[in-house]
Amino acid sequence: MLRNPELRTKPLGIQQKNIVVTCNYVARERGISKLSYIKDAEKKCPDIVLVNGEDLTHYREMSYKITNFLLKYTPKVERLGFDENFLDVSDMVRTRLNDPSTKEEVKGHIYGQGQKDDADSCTCGCHARLTVGTQIAADIRSALQEELGISCCAGIAWNKLLSKLVAGTHKPNQQTVLFPEHTFELMLSLEAVRAIPGIGHSTAKRLASLGIQTISQLQEVDQSVLTGEFGNSMAQTMKLLSCGSDQSPVVTTGQAQSISDEDSFRKCQDVEDVKNRIGGLLDNLLKRLEEDGRLPGIIRLTLRKLDKEGQWSKRESRQCRVPSHVFALGNNKTIAWYCVLSNNKTIQMKMK
DNA sequence: GTGGATGAG
DNA sequence: CATTCTCATCCAC
C-alpha cells in the first residue's frame, strides 16, 4: 500500500504460492483471514487484489527502516518478526517526569475502563510512569506516520508480555495502556493458553494432555503437575506468564544472526532444475551477504521431502563451516558444492 | 559444534 | 493441523 496508495481502499491480499499470507483491513472486513487459500479468498471476495509477496526484500528493508527509526529514541529496541518491536522506555519516562512541563493526560485507550480516575490507589508512581508512557507512544507513532508513512498499534505496560497483549485490544492504528489493577482481567479475557506468547501448538497440546486448556486452569494448577511434564524452569515460567508476570528484559536485537533464502520447490523432478533453483537461492544469498558486509561462518541446507501422497515430511538440515578462502576465490557456486561435498550427501529442496 | 523441535510474525 | 518465507532460541547428542 505504501508503494501503491491506490490499493489502500481496495481489499488487498499478499500472496505466497496458494496462500493469502496476510491482508489489509478492507479485506478483513470482507471476511478474509490470514493464511487462507487463494480459492477461498476469491470465493468470499471476488474483487480482492492479490500482490505476490514471495520475495521479502521490500518488507525486510522497511522492517529495518522502522527498527532504525525507533533506535533514535532508545537503544533498547527488540525486534519480534518483521513488524513488531519492543521498546524499553524507562529512561525516557524518568527524564520526562523530571520535566515540570509534563502533563498527567493519558493518550489513547485505557484497558478495562471508560475513564481513568478510580485508579490512583498506587503509591509507587506506576500510574504516572505509564501515563507518560502513553505520551511517548503517541509521539513515536505520530512521527512514524509522518516520516515513514507507517501506522501501527501500541501497547503500554511494564513488561513485554502485557504490552504485547494489551496492544492487541484496540485495532487497527490505536494504542492502549494497561494499569496494574486490570492485569487479571486482561489475562482472563484470553481464555485459551495458546494465546500466551511462547505457548505454541506443541506446548498447548502437552498442557491439554494434563487437562489444562484455559488461562485460569493454568493459574490454578499445582506447580508439581507442570514440573512433571515440562521440568522446573518451564513450569515456573508458564505459571508466572499465566498471571501476567514476565521477567524477561528488552534485549537489543542488533544485526541478524543468520540470513536465509527459501522456496517450496513446487514440482521439481529434474536434477538440472534442482541445481538451477539452489543456484538461484545461493545467488540471492550472496547478494545479501555482500550488502551485509560480514562473512558467514557456517552454511546450512535445509530440506523437506514430499512423499508419494504429496505430504510434507519433517525438515532435515546439513551444515558445515565455511573457510574464508572460499570467499577469497570469489566463486559463487563453489560454496554450495563445498557444503554438499563435505557432507557427502545429496541435498535438494530448501536452503538456509 | 550439529541437527531437530519449537515458536514468533 | 499446516499452508509461506523468514528469523530466533532451546536442547539432546
Sheet of most strands: 4 strands, mixed
The radius of gyration computed from the alpha-carbon positions, rounded to a whole number of angstroms, is 24 Å
Annotated CATH homologous superfamily of the largest domain? Reverse transcriptase/Diguanylate cyclase domain
The name of the CATH topology of the largest domain is: Alpha-Beta Plaits
Walk me through what this model shows.
- The protein has 352 residues and is α/β, with parallel strands linked by helices.
- The chain has 4 domains: 5-53, MutS, DNA mismatch repair protein, domain I (3-Layer(aba) Sandwich), CATH 3.40.1170.60; 58-181, 2-Layer Sandwich (Alpha-Beta Plaits), CATH 3.30.70; 190-242, 5' to 3' exonuclease, C-terminal subdomain (DNA polymerase, domain 1); 271-343, no CATH class.
- It is 41% helix and 12% strand.
- The protein has a 4-stranded mixed beta sheet with strand order 3-2-1-4. A 3-stranded parallel beta sheet has the order 7-9-8. A two-stranded antiparallel ribbon has the order 5-6.
- Strand 8 (154-156), helix 6 and strand 9 (175-177) form a beta-alpha-beta unit.
- The chain starts with 11 loop residues before the first strand and ends in a 9-residue tail after the last helix.
- The model is unreliable at 344-352 (pLDDT under 50).
- The structure holds a DNA duplex (9 and 13 nucleotides).
Topology of helices and strands:
Layout: E1 12-16, E2 19-23, H1 25-29, E3 36-37, H2 38-44, E4 49-52, H3 57-70, E5 77-80, E6 84-87, H4 90-98, E7 109-110, H5 126-148, E8 154-156, H6 160-167, E9 175-177, H7 183-188, H8 201-209, H9 215-220, H10 223-230, H11 232-242, H12 271-292, E10 298-303, E11 316-321, H13 325-328, H14 332-343
Parallel strand pairs: 1-4, 7-9, 8-9
Antiparallel strand pairs: 1-2, 2-3, 5-6, 10-11
Helix pairs in contact: 4-5, 10-11
The protein binds a DNA duplex (9 and 13 nucleotides) through β2, β3, α8, β10 and β11.
GO molecular function: damaged DNA binding; DNA-directed DNA polymerase activity
GO biological process, one term: DNA repair
Family: Belongs to the DNA polymerase type-Y family.
